[in-house]
Amino acid sequence: MTARTFNTLGGFQSMLFCIGIYIVALFFSIFICSAIFKAVNSRKNADITVVQPAAKNNAVQLASR
């Protein structure tokens, strides 16, 4: 009985490694590009709130949740 070896797979090891790294880089670039896109476009949709001046009396106003 002869032992089976994986010599053919060893020849493809460097190519499989490069393909794997390329797929991982593409996967993470989706998240990086979408984060940059959301950061750039969020300024246009920002809600602007107008703050009213405080009351002129000397009463202390407490806020609670």
Topology readout:
Elements: H1 7-11, H2 13-41
Provide structural commentary.
The chain is mainly alpha-helical and 65 residues long. The longest helix is centred in the middle third of the chain and has 29 residues, at 13-41. Helices cover 52% and strands 0% of the residues. The chain is rod-shaped and about 95 Å long. The chain crosses the membrane at residues 12-37. Keywords: Membrane, Transmembrane, Transmembrane helix.
Features:
single chain, 65 residues, mainly alpha, rod-shaped, membrane, transmembrane
Q: Brief overview, please?
A:
By secondary structure, the protein is an all-alpha fold. It is built from two helices and no strands.
Structural class: mainly alpha
Main sheet attributes: strand count, strand direction, barrel closure: none
Unreliable segments of 5+ consecutive residues? none
Measured distance between first and last alpha carbons: 78 Å
Strand percentage lies at under 5%
Helix fraction bin: 40-55%
Shape: rod-shaped
- Rg over alpha carbons: 30 Å
